[in-house]
Amino acid sequence: MERVLSIVQIMITVLVIALILIQNRGSGAGAIFGSGGGPVHTKRGAEKWMHYATIGLIVVFALIGVASLLIQN
Length: 73
What we know:
Layout: H1 2-23, H2 46-72
């Protein structure tokens, strides 16, 4: 069971990384230091779906981590 949870966590990690990289708008290195002040807009369509999917996958990742700790003890 622990092995299955570990494999699922790895798959979720890859999905979260992919979703985060897809959401990157190419704002450049200037945004890291605070000079990327573009207009603020609301998320719509696929962008909104990817945002919620990322949050959901992170929550599932955390829950699986807690479950694997409980199973070990």
